[in-house]
Amino acid sequence: MNKRIYLCLAHMSGKEQDFIKEAFETNWVVPLGPNVNAFEEELKNFIGENKEVVALSAGTAAIHLGLIQLGVQAGDEVICQSFTFCASANPVTYLGAIPVFVDSEEDTWNMDPVLLEEAIKDRIRKTGKKPKAILPVHLYGMPAKMDEICAIATHYDIPILEDAAEALGSEYKGRKCGTFGKFGALSFNGNKMITTSGGGALIVADEATKKQTMFYATQAREAFPHYQHEKIGYNYRMSNICAGIGRGQMTVLEDHIAHHRHVHSLYEKGFEGFKGITLKSNPNDCFNANYWLCTILIDPELTGTNYEEVRVKLDAVGIETRPLWKPMHLQPVFAVNPCYVNGVSEKLFNIGLCIPAGPWVTDEDVSYIVEQIRLCCTR
Ligand SMILES: Cc1ncc(COP(=O)(O)O)c(C=O)c1O
């Protein structure tokens, strides 16, 4: 095989150019316009649950604006899943607030509800005040245990902001990820389920919150003929050109999701009975991951190899893989942040690998990848 197989490359429907062309022809080359409105409407219909959607320049911006609207301020604490990409936690620090990290459970690799409750109690004991928000992540598209997390959030009356950046189309008990919390963040970065080249969206409860989100996303300009500002705003709106790409991508979103799930099912067959390699799968019928990236755990004892050796060997035969996210509580930049840890995410980080799953990955590619991983194992 001489082509290179990537983790998850952007994949166009072919219709993107039509929407972009229309934007140029009508001179809507600005961060608002018909493509933005239509993309939001299509996302809203896809997400369901009577939610509203605001298209933004990035998933990170969506998290930032969600936190602002939850009233997070300097000195506040926000409970954040530790096992994630840094973009879940960074916006907390933009506000001068403090991410408090909570480890994962084994079933979904997401926020451990037991540790979450321990963390809330301990923060109240230590600081005399409640954390301002809870930020669970649906990592690699696997839904977090939302029943348990929502029950704790309700009990302590702390709002949830879901990071569903990797989980567009994933469902928990038949409901789309990103719709459980007060806010949900999506990402349309180049490597996600769909792309707008770069972009994101905030899922919000109603029309009024949508208006408020748009206000913060457009420099918080008040309703005056002149430019009047009473709050600090941001330049976070999605461009009408990017939204044109998004509209084209919406025509293949269901196909992309089906393809990621198909690739996962092929890996499932490929790794069946393969001692020492465990493919991450839905723990039970409540969970319906989009399998944005497929992930495996490599047991060094049983395979005679490890994730880094496998990564280097696969790279040499044209297969891109990546270690699992390094937990935030192990990141130097968050070394002094409070954390509630059970060893799960650290263990996963030390034995896990993301393997290709995107729209370009063919059935033959999966056979080749499984075969090459087999060749890496010496036991
Ligand atoms: C878990 C997670 N959160 C947040 C983000 C941020 O999204 P964006 O890159 O669109 O800012 C990403 C992706 O990049 C992500 O994987």
Summarize the structure.
With 379 residues, the chain is of the alpha/beta class. It is 37% helix and 14% strand.
CATH architecture of the largest domain: 3-Layer(aba) Sandwich
- The number of E-state strands comes to 15
Ligands present: pyridoxal-5'-phosphate
CATH class descriptor of the largest domain: Alpha Beta
**Order of the strands making up the biggest sheet:** 1-9-8-5
Largest β-sheet summary: 4 strands, mixed
Calculate the terminal CA-CA distance, rounded to whole Å: 25 Å
Structural class estimated from helices and strands: alpha/beta
CA radius of gyration: 21 Å
What are the low-pLDDT stretches, counting only 5+ consecutive residues below 50? none
Order of helices and strands: HHEHEHEHEHEEEEEHHHEEEHHEEHEH
Q: What would your notes on this structure say?
A:
The chain is of the alpha/beta class and 379 residues long. It has two domains: 16-251, 3-Layer(aba) Sandwich (Aspartate Aminotransferase, domain 2), CATH 3.40.640.10; 254-376, Aspartate Aminotransferase, domain 1 (Alpha-Beta Complex). Helix content is 37%, strand content 14%. It has helices spanning 16-25, 34-47, 59-69, 90-94, 113-127, 146-156, 207-217, 240-250, 253-270, 300-303, 307-316, 344-351, 363-376; strands spanning 52-56, 77-81, 98-102, 133-135, 161-163, 171-172, 175-176, 183-187, 200-204, 277-279, 287-288, 294-298, 322-323, 339-340, 352-355. The strands form four sheets. A four-stranded mixed sheet has the order 1-9-8-5. It has a four-stranded parallel sheet with strand order 4-2-3-14. A four-stranded antiparallel sheet has the order 10-12-15-13. Helix 4 (90-94) links the parallel strand 2 (77-81) and strand 3. Helix 5 packs parallel to helix 6. It is globular, with a radius of gyration of 21 Å. Residues 58-60, 84-85, 87-88, 137, 163, 165-166, 187, 189, 200 line the site of pyridoxal-5'-phosphate.
